[in-house]
Each structure stands twice: as structure tokens, then as C-alpha cells.
Amino acid sequence: MRAVVENIEDRAAFKDEWRRIFSKSDALFFLSPPWVETLMETAAHSAAFKYIRIFDDLRGVYGAAIVGAQAGSMNRGAPARINESGDDELDRVYLEYNDILLANGAADEARIEAINALIEAMPKTNEFVFRNARPALASAVKAAGAGAGLTARPLLRQPTYYIDLSSEIMNGYSSSLRYKIRRARRCYEERGDLRLEIPQGEAERDVAWTELMRLHARTWSGRGKKGVFGSPQFLAFHRRLIERRPSCTDLLRILAGDQTIGVLYNFVDRERAYNYQSGFFYEANNQLAPGFVAHTLAAEYYRARGLKTYDLMGGDADYKRRLGEEGETLETIVLERTGIRSGIRTGLRNFLTSARRVRNEGMRRT
Prior knowledge:
The chain is of the alpha+beta class. The chain folds into two domains: 2-158 and 329-365, Aminopeptidase (3-Layer(aba) Sandwich); 167-307, Aminopeptidase, CATH 3.40.630.30. The chain has helices at 11-23, 33-42, 109-121, 135-148, 175-189, 201-221, 232-244, 290-304, 318-323, 340-365; strands at 2-7, 50-56, 60-69, 80-82, 101-102, 127-133, 151-164, 194-197, 249-256, 259-269, 272-280, 309-314, 325-336. Strands 1, 2, 3, 4, 5, 6, 7, 8, 9, 10, 11, 12 and 13 form a 13-stranded mixed β-sheet that branches. The N and C termini lie far apart (60 Å).
């Protein structure tokens, strides 16, 4: 087994190889050709991606990952982000279920081999960022870092949640949640037919997308925040994904009569649907529950389509705990080289963190 790190010179050849490996893997959507190719297409023309390839003489290339970086500071190498672009704005699309892409049957040691090759190939890079690593990748990152003398700094641990579509959806809910959803459905049905609609054609998808942004912005502005749709690169990524890969994206509109009460933006790959983004019409009447109703209708729709899982993805949110079962835990980890400059950065980071904590505590006291 060997791993090499190369510049991507021929993108067509890269895409062909990535598609071949993905077709032989159990990797999830965020390593799929639609996601990875859209990321590379949306990145600035000057963006330079590196490519980790894992191979042996018998199987050929059977593992891969991309690496993105942007200009750094303090005359150092830029932080390298695994399976991301390295651009802060574009990476707001928020990678989940991160891993090394491996064909079925590959040994777990392949991940360590890939990370070791990356560390060796980028000696001027002081930070390697693994966002939302799946458990096998997180373990490999820690092992490779320890072996290379790098510090593994944890940034985030978060559970994932999913709805099992193998049985009636409501049967998996608590009695109190079933009551809440049934009551909300009755209230909505007083306004007219409660239904889930699938936009047909580009014009209807544009309408659903606009409604999603409007509802999302309405909710977040009420919290004093902008929400994710304020980023031009975020929008460019998803418009490209929806337009060029419509078979792997769903925009689901939930209506009560003529009123849209929710829009779900989901990904679909193999036998799994992923709820990526949403917008709901919240009202003063606390008997209405647009989010619970929308996700339940979506889960029922995907079950009827023959899918096995409705993935609520990462984040320890109350609605996810109530709707779904807990899945794997994702970890965001940074591997750091030690040295004077990295020590200065660590000290500065700790100082800024402390200053923010003091400021926030002061705000809470006033």
C-alpha cells in the first residue's frame, strides 16, 4: 500500500477516477461526485487542489481525498482542509460525514497512510483541518498525528440523527410527539388540503428555492442573524448543484391550502435522503408545528419511494432528538505542527478566546 499527494492537473481524469472509486464504496453523499465536482467548479479559478491517491500493485488506485488551501498569514503555509476548498466563504456549504474515499474492502490503515503522505508532502503547512470526520477518520487522524509528532486539537464533537424508514414513521415517535403532530395537522387542514409537493421543472424549482430563502431569512432575522443564504458563494454552489445534478437534490414544499408552511432542501443518494436546509413559516399559535409536520411528511414520502434512511445529519438539536435516532458522532480536528510560530498562534488564539469569554460574561451580567 502506498499513498501519494499530487496536484490535480487533469480534472477530467480526476473526475473519472473519483467516480470509479465512489461507485465501489459505501461513502455518503458528501464524498459523492456531485458534491465534490460542484465544490471544485464553484471554487475560484485560481484555486489549486491537491489529490491524495492510495494504491497498490494489485488493485491500482482504490482510495482518494482532495485537499484545499488558501493564502495563509505570518509567512506560513496555509491551513490545509481535507475534502474542502480552503476558501472560508465557499466552505460555508459545510461538509459533513467527512472521510477518505475508500473502495470496499480497503484496510483501515489506508486512512493513516493517506494522512501520513499529506503531512510529509506539505512540510510548510502548520495546520491540517478535518471537518466533521466520521469515527474511522477521526481515529486515523489522531493516530497519524501522534506518529508524526503533531498535536491533535479537537474543535467540535456533534452527534448525528436519522429516521429509520423501515417501518411506519409515526410509530417511532413518543406518544407526546405523535399527539403534537396530529393536532398540528388538524389545525393546518382547517385551511385546506395539507400536502407535500415536488416542484416540476426549472420554474417551479426556482419558486421553491425563493420561498426557502425567504422563510429561512424570516426565521433568522427574528433571531438577529442573517442565515447562510447571505453568502454569494454558498448560493452559487447550491444553484450549480441543483441545476446540474437535479437527480440528487429535492426541494419539497409543504402547503396547507394555498399557504406554504415549509420548504425542505434535501440531498438524495442511493437509499438515503439528507435534510440539508429548511425554511418554515412560524406563527404565534403554539399548536402549529411546521417543522415537525414537514419532516414527518418528508420521511413518509421517502419511505414510499423505497429509501431506507432520512438523515437529519449533525447537530444536537431538540427536534432531531425527538424525531430520530442517534447515529455516529462527527469530530472536527486540527492537526498542528509544533514550533515557535505555532506556539505564538496558539497563545494568541487562547488570549482571544479568553477575551471573548470575559466580554460575553460581562454582557450576561448587564
